Amino acid sequence: MVGFDPGSQGVPLSPQEAAFAGSAAGMVTRALVSPFDVLKIRFQLQIESVSSKMPEGKYKGLFQASRCILSEEGISAFWKGHIPAQLLSICFGAVQFTSFEVLTKLVHNSTPFDSQTSGVHFICGGLAAVSATVACQPLDMLRTRFAAQGEPKVYRSLRHAVWTMWRSEGVLTFYRGLSPTLIAVFPYAGLQFSFYNVFKKLLAPPPNAGQSGGGNWRSLVCGGGAGMISKTVTYPFDLFKKRLQVGGFESARVTFGQVQFNDKLHVQSRGSNVP
Questions:
Q1: Is 234 helix (H, G, I), strand (E, B) or coil?
Q2: Nearest C-alpha neighbor of 89 from the set 34, 39, 147, 145
Q3: How far apart (Å, rounded) are the C-alpha atoms in residues 66 and 35?
Q4: Predicted pLDDT of residue 5
Q5: Which residue has the higher pLDDT, 151 or 184?
Q6: Cα angle 112-115-118, degrees, rounded to a multiple of 5
Q7: pLDDT tens figures, 3-27
Q8: CA–CA gap between residue 270 and residue 255 (Å, rounded)
Q9: Alpha helices in the chain (DSSP H)
Q10: 138, pLDDT greater than 50
Q11: Which of 58, 152, 178, 194 could share a disulfide with 118, CB 3.0–4.6 Å?
């Protein structure tokens, strides 16, 4: 069970163990879903509609976009920005799970509330995600920039990206999109932890069934269901964040379609010169 559980028969996780578990889970998950994340970012940043019925956009659907990226940029493009993405997953998972364990234990020891209720998981999960977001936002910014750029690359390496962004846009650019992220991450993580808790209880085997198999599959189903619900509810804020994070980066995206420069009303179409 995620979070501090006073009724657990085993030894409860220490903050260090929770940090390691969260980091390892985030690292493996990021490696597996990176291609879908790249596609999601490309879709989010396309001003034109993502539809085969409206052909003015570069990307028209999941399979068409996959073929397009593969033919133009190669298979490695699906893992663009993988280093900052992995650092983001490791950092975010460590801070989030450690904070969640500490907060649920604090609630159990300092309040009359049960640390395993869905309401406690919602509040503690949201607070844990907020702390992780503030700590890891620069890595999220770097991840978005790498996934957004096409060929030829604007940023040659992680070090080059950090130096270029710092010199040309200032240190605050690493926190672009923080406001909508914080607005979204609290309900997102809160719903994720609370729904995971609900699903785990619903799918738990009967008390008289003993220790049956399938625990890992139940965790997978519960985590997937909780993530799908929470992401659907808070997805618009993720779109706002991505659009803010590529502000000032529009010249690197003119080959993908229309881009809006400096938040002004005029747009620059594919293939034209940057004003």
A1: helix
A2: 34
A3: 9
A4: 58
A5: 184
A6: 110
A7: 555 555 555 666 677 677 767 777 7
A8: 5
A9: 15-45, 62-73, 82-110, 118-148, 158-169, 178-202, 215-245
A10: yes
A11: 194
Is the Cβ–Cβ distance between 46 and 58 less than 8 Å?
Answer: yes
Tell me how far apart the alpha carbons of residues 209 and 142 are, in angstroms, rounded to a whole number.
49
Using one digit for the tens of pLDDT, what is the confidence trace for 78-90?
888 888 888 888 8
Question: What does residue 259 show for φ and ψ, rounded to 5 degrees?
Answer: -135, 150
Q: Hey, what are 53's tokens?
A: 């019925």
What is the token pair recorded at 24? 């390892």
Report which residue type is found at 92. F
CB atoms inside a 10 Å sphere around CB 28? 12
84: tokens are: 């900052």
Which region, left, alpha or beta, applies to residue 8 given φ > 0 means left and ψ of -120 to 50 means alpha? beta
Band of residue 271 on the pLDDT scale cut at 50, 70, 90 = very low
- What are the backbone angles phi and psi of residue 238, rounded to the nearest 5°? -70, -35
Angstrom distances, CA of residue 68 to CA of 39, 73, 251:
11, 8, 20
pLDDT, tens digit (0-9, with 9 covering 90-100), for 107-137 = 888 888 877 787 888 888 889 989 999 999 9
For residue 44, name the pLDDT band (cuts at 50, 70, 90).
confident
d(CA 256, CA 259): 8
Cis amide prior to 152 (ω within 30 degrees) = yes
